[in-house]
UniProtKB/TrEMBL annotation:
SMART domains: SERPIN
Organism: Cnemophilus loriae
Lineage of origin: Eukaryota, Metazoa, Chordata, Craniata, Vertebrata
Occurrences of domain Serpin (ranges): 1-186
InterPro entries: Serpin_CS, Serpin_dom, Serpin_fam, Serpin_sf, Serpin_sf_1, Serpin_sf_2
GO molecular function annotations of the record: serine-type endopeptidase inhibitor activity
UniProt protein name: ANT3 protein
Family (UniProt): Belongs to the serpin family.
GO cellular component: extracellular space
Matches recorded under PANTHER family: ANTITHROMBIN-III, SERINE PROTEASE INHIBITOR, SERPIN
């Protein structure tokens, strides 16, 4: 199924690789300065995103990231927004924070007035939000340029995210994934 979505365009040098055996293109975009980046994993045309997800491991992703080289690219990316929230109460309980959720045993010093023992945490939620649009791309050092009246240079690669893809927000210095998502319906 296809749909029309607003698309952003940028021409610049980015870290990129094509992994033919895994049938993916991998692109890294500066997200906030140089310490946070957005890594996009785009399956080749005809390769279902589910297949890439099924075969993906942290070692494989690290190998893809390590194999990226800086090169000139034409990047087409849909504007998108990812938002999710979920309860973390059970996870926190399993980590040993039982008393926090107990009306009888909760102690919240520094949060509530001293002497109050009638308050406890009844629920805990985590909410994640990511929006990618032209304003968000201002954090990168590249400038958007529109080319008209000539064909694309032959030595430039094209990264066209016109089908479902994966994204990872990565803290580069620590090499840590801090957010991940799948874009299937922008």
């Amino acid at each position: 199924e296809t749909c029309k979505v607003p698309t952003m365009y940028q021409e610049s040098k980015f870290r990129y690789t094509f992994i033919p055996q895994d049938k993916v293109q991998v692109l890294e975009l500066p997200y906030k300065g140089d310490d946070i980046t957005m890594v996009l994993v785009l399956p080749s045309a005809g390769t279902p995103l589910e297949e890439v997800e099924r075969d993906l491991t942290s070692e494989k992703l690290q190998g893809w990231i390590d194999s990226m080289k800086e090169m000139s690219l034409f990047v087409y990316l849909p504007r998108f927004r990812v938002e999710d929230s979920f309860s973390v109460k059970e996870k926190l309980r399993k980590m040993g924070l039982e008393d926090l959720f107990s009306p009888e045993n909760a102690r919240l010093p520094g949060i509530i007035a001293e002497g109050r023992t009638d308050l406890y945490v009844s629920e805990a939620f985590h909410k994640a939000f990511l929006e990618v649009n032209e304003e968000g791309s201002e954090a990168s050092a590249a400038t958007a340029v529109t080319i008209s009246g000539r064909s694309f240079p032959m030595n430039r690669k094209i990264f066209n995210a016109n089908r479902p893809f994966l994204l990872f927000i990565r803290e580069a210095a620590l090499n840590t994934i801090i957010f991940m998502g799948r874009i299937a319906d922008p």
